[in-house]
Amino acid sequence: MSFDGCQGCGACLLTCPVHAIRPVAGDGPAALYARPDLCTGCGECVEVCPVDAVTLLARERR
Ligand code: SF4
Ligand code: SF4
User: Which tens digit of pLDDT belongs to each residue from 22-45?
Assistant: First the structure.
């Protein structure tokens, strides 16, 4: 998953049903990563992002 162009609004973190998206500690609010062991590939974070910053990798879609 990539977050290129993220504005740090936090919507994707709040939306993810399994809390897979986490801020990267000490790197500012716009730095995010998604735990691959938790992400189900539901795509809700992609839908909710106001600036279309979230991109699922092909292997993450289910
Ligand atoms: S695809 Fe679904 S499970 Fe994965 S990070 Fe986004 S909202 Fe969470
Ligand atoms: S919803 Fe988009 S802009 Fe907001 S924190 Fe997530 S990736 Fe960044």
Answer: 988 776 556 898 999 999 999 999
